[in-house]
Amino acid sequence: MGPDRVAPGPRAGQVRGQGRVMTEMETETWAPGVPLERTLLARGLEFGGLEWPGRGGTPVVLVHGWLDQAAIWAGMAPALGRRVFGMDLRGHGRSAHSASGDSLHFLEYLADLDAVLDVLEEHWGPGPVDLVGHSLGGSVVSIYAGIRPERIRRLVLLDGLGLSDNLDGSVERLVQYLDGVKAPLVSRVLPSFEAAVERLRERLEGLDEPAIQLYVRRHVRSGPEGLSWSFDERLRRRFGAPYRQDAHLLVLARITAPTLLLVPEHTLFHPAEIDRLAAAIPDHRREDLPGLGHALHVQAAGEVARRICRFLDG
Fold this sequence. Notes:
Blueprint: E1 20-21, E2 36-42, E3 45-52, E4 55-63, E5 82-87, H1 106-124, E6 129-134, H2 136-147, E7 152-158, H3 170-182, E8 189-190, H4 193-201, H5 209-219, E9 220-223, E10 226-229, H6 245-252, E11 259-264, H7 271-279, E12 284-289, H8 296-299, H9 301-313
Parallel strand pairs: 4-5, 4-6, 6-7, 7-11, 11-12
Antiparallel strand pairs: 1-2, 2-3, 3-5, 8-10, 9-10
Helix pairs in contact: 1-2, 4-5
């Protein structure tokens, strides 16, 4: 698929009204393993995502990492054998960007997830879901599970739980934030769709060719100057508010869902920090995956799916 078939970029703040699923959910034909593109209305914004209808049981909601999007789950999601929805976080994939002039804040991800689950509940019916998050998505879902414990049946965290405190650089961080807000946004123009595929191919090693093509189609957008990455360039700015691990620990202690931590050998996080944060979760188990890196759900999709299924069925 060439650039003429690439979707235009999302428009900020274009939708108003109550949350609902925009696309027809019940009448489409579905080929097993092939996701359906979804657009949900929540908080006055459009949120993109992919649905793998699967079979019955508790639905699974997947939340990706920073500068990623729902198609990153294309290798793993079909192997779960369940109804699965991969959400595009705000400013990622085919979800809307925040309005011009607004700053992005981590708390928006929590409110967005809460609203998207409301919409999915209208479609799937009431009841808790199983929640899976990778990297930034792991931090989002772990905090959400402590704030809304009644909405989560089981929780899975893929190399994403939290960070070290960064209070020492809090003043410098605020300076960088204000400087970043003033700086013009520059979207990198890509020479062609094929060039984008080759640029991302190494990062997506582990996905088959159709999944790679799906990922790239959702990761670029067409605009007046040509193709560019679909994510909001403001995501590259530093957040002004520092991360507070002590506050995160308090929230983790409120999680009631059984929790699985999948930690790759080549994790991005310090082992002592993982241990400290994990210890705050009342009912958790940890499984280490030798030889794998941060993108474990891409590098070994089948093995990661097998471990998740075993946990969800337990």
